[in-house]
Amino acid sequence: MTLGLINANPVVHAKKERVARTEDLHGDEAVDPLEIYDILLSVDPEHPYSLEQLSVLSEESITVDDKLGRILITFITVQHCSKATVIGLCLIVKLKHYFPPHYKVDIKVSPGSHANEESVNKQLNDKERVAAALENQTFANL
Amino acid sequence: MEFVDGRFELREIQKLEGHTDRVWSLAWNPATGVDGIPSVFASCSGDKTVRIWEQSSSTSSSWLCKAVLEDTHTRTVRSCSWSPSGKLLATASFDATTAIWENVGGDFECISTLEGHENEVKSISWNASGSLLATCSRDKTVWIWEVQVGSEFDCVAVLTGHTQDVKMVQWHPTMDILFSCSYDNTIKVWADDGEDEWSCIQTLGEPNNGHSSTVWALSFDASGDKMVTCSDDLTLKIWGTDSTMQPADTDGFAPWRHLYTISGYHDRTIFSVHWSREGIIASGAADDAIRIFVENEEKDGLVDGPLYKLLLKEEKAHDMDINSVQWSPGEKRLLASASDDGTIKMWELASVSC
Q: Which of B44, B140, B286, B331 is deepest in the core (most CB within 10 A)?
């Protein structure tokens, strides 16, 4: 267990005003990246601030291909953030919860934002490793 | 010249439902499907169970679930493998154990549990004679167990060398030489020196024209002279060795070398590859498709022509990722596939008359 927070003094940005959206995403309508963004806002293992306020995600970092049923997420962390894989797992759990199971998720750390970018990306995109990690941890409460 | 002149299709025979989570792996019982014995295979799942399926009659779409092996593994069952005699089934789980099951008059009983790995066990393989069992894990090690009288299993080696998660182990079809493939992008070859000292005798990595990402599976051709590997790098690679290969000491061992890379056909991770007795290669990938490859017989005199060609691609074979494809050991060209969608499908590779 780490003593103290990894990012004890995060830079906090103002939350943008946003119109509330419905949560029903299982219909046949195209998946709107902004909807995904709203859902992922509240995920953060360390702080009461949302990931938007910490600039982990921005609206530009989500792309959806409805025809193929694929979602690509890129997220930003602090250079040596040891929680990068945990943040990634939290994002994956949230996505799985809200989207039809056949959607494929590719998740990457925003290029240049993490020292071990390749290693983090490889772990997060190995679905066997993700499955085992999710079985290990209590991600159910997210 | 069958594959040159004919058109083929993968006919879906049956869809098997029952598992309540993704199906990771399946294994055909090698002692069934011949001499009038109905074909049997096992499947394992994220639902922590193993299911045994049997063909109830000669009618093709007659597969039924005969048994559910539950209340033993406490986490995902990742893979399963039958002993060569078909009497025992080994199952590998994320709970870090390997269970050994015996069919006692139709009921499967867990007769032994192999412990030792530090975390998730990913794969198991029996050697050709059934005297040895190999397991591998995310703990980066490969273990070799000796099967004793009374179904006791003694660990005779803990093999280190891989620098990451080991995804699969597979014994050579005729010799006691073990192959493993890993998240560290390499394939390792392990043999003993004749005195029960096991070691890595070869590593196939990028310098050997090897894979550039996780190697998920490997499969030998019927003769054991060639193997095919599949990877997250979106390629299949064919490897070969001299058929006069001797085990163990460096004087006799003929190294494996890269023969050919099949690339440009897959656009997402290839999780499974299996070489049939007849030399047909099937792949299962994260794009929900099954692909069939055969040796390219119409070389047209081209020295640089492709050695293998795509015979067919079954798009949307499943609704989600395909985790395992396995040819049946029997007479017919039957292929079973397992998917994240929780189902297993039975296919027949058939020629199409125009």
A: B44
